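User: Could you go from structure to sequence for me? I need the amino acid at each position, not a summary. C-alpha cells:
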C-alpha cells in the first residue's frame, strides 16, 4: 500500500483516539493504550489515510491489521484492490468490517476465524451481582475471600503505582516470567503501561489491600461510552480467590456507569479459555484473518 508507515507517537494519541472513536465495532486490541503498552513487544507502526489509520506489527513477524476509523466513509470496492496487492493478508479483522468487505468484494476474500483473538464481553450488572446457578461458584469464591481477608479497595493512582508494580514483580517471580515468552512479554507491556500511566489518557483501575499489602490489581480503560476494557488483572498467588474478588469489586466500585465489560481474548490458552468461559460471556467481538484474492 502506498503511504508512509511511521512509529507510534504518544503525542498523537488524542488524534488517534478521535479517529478510533468513529470505528463502528471497536476491538480492545486497537485502543491507543493497548498499542502503546505492547509496542515494545510488537514494534507497531501506523499509516494515516484520510478517515482511517492502518496498523501493522513488525515483531515477531510483519502483520497488517484492520484499520481504525470510519469504515463507512470508504469505498472498499475501490480502496482494497487499489491499495493492496492480491494475496494481502489482514489480521484481527472484526466481524463488522468483514461484513463490509464481503459485501463490497463478493467472492474475493478468504476468511479464517481467529478464535484465539475473540474478545469476551459480559454485562457489568451480571458480574457484580453474580446471581443464579451459572455464577454460584464465583459468588462463593468472592464471599469466601471477603469473609476471610476483609480487603480494602483503592482506586489506582500515582501514589500506589509502586505498590502495584511490587505485586507484579512478585507475581512474575512466582510464575517464572523470564522463562516463558508470553508472560515476559506481558510483563513488559504492564511495565510500559504503569510507567506512562499519567501520559496515557483514560486509564483507570483499582487494587485490593489485605492488612496494608496489595494482593490484587486491575488496569482498565473505556472502549466506548458503554464498554469498559479490563486491560490487565493480576492477583497474588498466596491469596486464594483474589482474582474473583478483584473482578467483582472493581466493577462494583468503578464501573457502574458502563453496561458492558470486555475481558479481552484468551490467546488460545486452554486454561485461560476455560477461566474466561466460566464467566459466561454474553457475546464476543469476533475477529478473522482475511486474505484478498
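Assistant: Here is the amino acid at each position, in order:
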Amino acid at each position: 500500500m502506498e503511504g508512509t508507515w511511521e512509529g507510534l507517537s504518544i503525542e498523537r494519541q488524542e488524534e488517534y483516539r478521535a479517529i478510533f472513536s468513529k470505528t463502528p465495532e471497536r476491538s480492545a486490541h486497537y485502543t491507543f493504550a493497548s498499542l502503546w503498552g505492547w509496542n515494545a513487544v510488537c514494534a507497531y507502526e501506523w499509516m494515516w489515510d484520510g478517515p482511517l489509520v492502518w496498523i501493522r506489527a513488525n515483531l515477531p513477524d510483519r502483520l497488517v491489521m484492520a484499520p481504525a476509523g470510519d469504515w463507512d466513509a470508504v469505498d472498499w470496492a475501490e480502496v482494497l484492490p487499489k491499495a493492496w496487492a492480491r494475496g494481502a493478508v489482514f489480521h484481527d479483522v472484526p466481524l463488522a468490517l468483514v461484513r463490509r468487505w464481503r459485501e463490497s468484494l463478493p467472492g474475493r476474500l478468504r476468511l479464517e476465524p481467529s478464535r484465539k483473538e475473540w474478545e469476551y464481553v459480559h454485562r457489568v450488572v451480571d458480574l457484580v451481582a453474580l446471581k443464579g446457578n451459572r455464577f454460584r461458584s464465583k459468588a462463593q469464591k468472592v464471599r469466601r475471600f471477603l469473609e476471610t481477608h476483609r480487603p480494602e479497595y483503592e482506586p489506582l493512582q500515582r501514589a500506589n503505582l509502586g505498590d502495584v508494580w511490587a505485586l507484579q514483580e512478585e507475581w512474575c517471580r512466582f510464575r517464572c516470567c523470564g522463562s516463558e515468552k508470553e508472560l515476559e512479554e506481558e510483563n513488559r507491556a504492564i511495565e510500559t503501561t504503569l510507567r506512562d500511566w499519567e501520559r496515557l489518557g483514560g486509564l483507570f483501575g483499582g487494587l485490593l489491600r489485605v492488612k496494608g499489602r496489595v494482593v490484587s490489581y486491575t488496569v482498565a480503560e473505556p472502549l466506548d461510552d458503554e464498554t469498559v476494557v479490563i486491560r490487565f488483572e493480576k492477583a497474588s498467588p498466596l491469596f486464594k480467590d483474589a482474582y474473583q474478588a478483584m473482578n467483582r469489586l472493581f466493577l462494583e466500585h468503578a464501573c457502574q456507569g458502563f453496561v458492558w465489560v470486555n475481558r479481552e481474548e484468551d490467546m488460545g490458552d486452554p486454561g485461560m479459555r476455560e477461566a474466561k468461559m466460566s464467566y459466561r460471556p454474553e457475546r464476543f467481538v469476533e475477529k478473522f484473518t482475511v486474505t484478498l484474492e
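One structural detail worth keeping in mind: The mean pLDDT is 96.
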